Amino acid sequence: MSKRVLIVDGARTPFIRAKGRGPFLASDLAVSAARALLLRVGVLPTQIDEVITGCVMPSAYEANISRVVGLRLGLDESIPAWTVQRNCASGMQAVVSAMESIQRGQSQVVLAGGCEAMSQAPLLFSPAMVDWLLRLQQQKNILAKLKTGLALRPPFFKPIVALLLGLKDHQVNLGMGETAEILAHDFNISRQKMDAYSVQSHQRFAAAQKEHRLSEIVPIYDNQGHCYDYDDGVRVDSSLEKLAKLAPVFDLRYGQVTPGNSSQITDGAAYLLLASEEAVKHYRWPVLGEIVDYNWAALDPSRMGLGPAYAIPPLLARNHLTLNDIDYWEINEAFAVQVLACIEALASNEYCQNKLGMPKALGTLPMDRLNVDGGAIACGHPVGASGARIILHLLHTLRQHKAKQGIASLCIGGGQGGAVLLNTKGA
Prior knowledge:
Blueprint: E1 5-12, E2 16-17, H1 26-41, E3 50-54, H2 65-72, E4 81-84, H3 90-103, E5 109-117, E6 123-124, H4 127-138, H5 142-149, E7 160-161, H6 162-166, E8 168-169, E9 174-175, H7 176-186, H8 191-210, E10 220-221, E11 227-228, H9 240-244, E12 266-276, H10 277-283, E13 289-298, H11 307-318, E14 328-331, H12 336-346, H13 349-354, H14 376-379, H15 386-400, E15 405-412, E16 416-423
Parallel strand pairs: 3-4, 3-5, 14-15
Antiparallel strand pairs: 1-12, 1-13, 2-12, 5-12, 6-7, 8-9, 10-11, 13-16, 15-16
């Protein structure tokens, strides 16, 4: 399994903030990103061995969405495709699965990434309405149907928002925002500190847009000819004064987590082309970087935001690295408090010893090398795509700064964490 796996290139769509029902299905976004990537590199359909896609909520029209994407791209029907789901890390899981497939020699070239159209999440019938409809369908004569029909009650019509169900951990009966509030309490992180981090995220992302440092983004067009060519959730005018006016949404009385210091509900897709060293040499492709190693970790679901703090230390230890050996970091910004809590945990001797089984604190993540172009608080968090986005953007960051090594990490709903080690040494 020591075979090198190279990332040839990648592309993503703009992340589009949900404002009602969006114009794209998840597969529309995926095809747009993947097609642009393949055209940019000059990949022929016959050169791809496998397609792997992460997606959490594909529509009913997109069963095994990876297969849908592969066929819509015009790939031969003989090319296998499969879909993975690890909540917020689904896009990262797709990339890691591609890495493993290449290391095993099963594939030489894999198209991998993630997509999500959160604005397309359906409204569901309540269980009472479903039961009533089933009873009505089972009746054999008109009188029985009329009797069942009279049992219909107005509350049956109340819809269930699937997106809200998906953003709740039903094992601990907590929404993701409520787990963020727990971290704020555990680490005594103030509302002002959260808001200040959020303003920084918007400012950094706005600067990256203005300075054209987001070259991984490709424009997409809807059926009306409208062009989407930038992440539209970025607020250039974000300020502490404006964020202070927002009310908490998860703990109305004592809470500190607001829409302003949380990631946004967003649609988007991101794909990478991974290949063996032999395939890269054979096809004479460029190389963006190398995926070296990865680590998954699990923890208390009620504190799921600490996932990166659990995933990063074993990854560093296994590769004989210290915190200072990493040039740049990407930690997905599900919530401002979640990133801040990870920083606090890794810098705490007590936490690292008692919770992570380490002899001492890992150290303090450097803020000037963490999410240097902002993150999901500014651009949004389409859950299936974010893991692929942070890997792709970290590689671009390393190249732009002529740096060698980086780690991309995220927390995962349900109480997990993931981290990937990347480098550009051979690129």
